[in-house]
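Most newcomers find our protein records easier to grasp once they have seen one. Each record describes a single protein and holds just a pair of labelled lines. A learned vocabulary of local backbone shapes supplies the integers on the structure line. Nothing more is needed to start thinking about how sequence determines fold. The record below serves as our worked example for the rest of this section.
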Amino acid sequence: MNDTPLDGMQVAIIAMDGVESVELTDPREALEKAGAKVTLVAPSDGEIQGMKHGEKGERFRVDMTLDDAHPDEFDAVLLPGGALNADKLRMDPRARNFVQRFDQARKPIAAICHAPWLLVSSGIVKMRRMTSYYTLQDDIRNAGGMWEDREVVVDGNWVTSRQPKDIPAFDREMITLFATQRAKTESAAKT
């Protein structure tokens, strides 16, 4: 089996101040270990403030702003959670447009914990099976999504997860989904 199934794949991580640090660092490490090139995209350049639950955690250097990031330059997107991050990001039209374009192109989207709020506010959860932090279940259902209380849910080009303790399952399914979607894209390009 290929140890780097995502070799050369371009993955955007969209986050801002208030991101739950472990939901950014652990999946990013898994992606990089699988061979992906990861770019941290945020509303503003500089650094973003990570959180460890309610306490300030490490800071992360932003690689690119939402103004400069174009969905067609990336193969997949990771949306880490953190209530403050997700609540602010969902109101940014640039972030909503980015995930809408990704979903329209059927590119893979991975979202954990509070991050599905961005998918809800983007108007793309109708008839989608997904999970999230339990406090978002009403928002997802009210937007027409089908919320499930499981550590990880894969539905088409999406993989979602509930919380930090589910990260091992999330990382595993995210890598599998991204690799599968990549294989489909490469196969379609050959025909």
